[in-house]
Amino acid sequence: MVHAERAALIEDLARLDDEQWEKPSLCEGWTVHDVVAHLVDTARTTRLGFVVGLARARFDFDRQNAVGVTRERGATPQATLERLRRVAPRRTTPPAPLDSRLVEEVVHGEDIRRPLGLTRSYPAEAVVRSLRLQTRTPASFGGAEELLTRVQLKATDADLTLGTGPEARGSTLSLLLAVSGRRVALDDLVGPGVAMLTTGM
Fold first, then answer.
1. Is 90 exceeded by the pLDDT of residue 96?
2. Distance between CA 159 and CA 13 in Å, rounded?
3. pLDDT at 142
4. Which DSSP category does 190 fall into?
């Protein structure tokens, strides 16, 4: 599933012009080009490499990510795209659950596609597994585990209900983006729990 998402994104990226590559993504402070460089970096990551890189960044995840983007961002969009093509078949992972690779591909895929007006029909299993992992992951590691003690997420396109509290309803993709800190997805959700998601960001 991870390889399928990488292939689909490469296909979309191949159709972009240079101006589109420099558009702001949903990741604050990052352009589309930056997010692609980040995906190259995470695809190259090994368990040992992640630990070494984190130590060099003084255990600052944001700093570690910034270093990775700088390292993998090519001189041109096409150079970065070629790097992504080369790493797309890799199976290496950091010391994290395997589904974290799905989260990377789906969430960052939307970080790129939404600002460009592109859409993808993601496999339901990939999105559900991503959402389940995000809601089991502490906020300190980029997840939303604590949030689910205050709000209940109910998918409208899958048999999935997570958490306790006021209900926030929407597609699994929109719920995934919302708990991943993408405010744009809040407009896709309904229910009294949406307010809790807003204050939790």
1. no
2. 32
3. 83
4. B
**What is the per-residue DSSP string for 113-138?**
HHHHT------HHHHHHHHHHHTTS-
Q: In sequence order, what are the beta bridge partners of 154?
A: 161, 169
Q: What single-letter DSSP state applies at residue 98?
A: T
pLDDT digit string (tens) for 152-182? 999 999 999 999 999 999 999 999 999 999 9
> Is the separation of the CB atoms in 71 and 57 below 8 Å?
no
Half-sphere exposure (Cβ direction) of 26: Cα atoms closer than 13 Å: 20
Which residues 6+ apart lie within 8 Å of 99 measured at CB? 129, 130, 132, 133
For 2, residues 6+ apart whose C-beta sits below 8 A from its C-beta are: 101, 102, 105
Angle between helices 99-116 and 32-44 (to 10 degrees): 170
* Short-list 117, 119, 130, CA closest to 179: 130
CA distance 96 to 10: 24
CA distance 143 to 181: 9
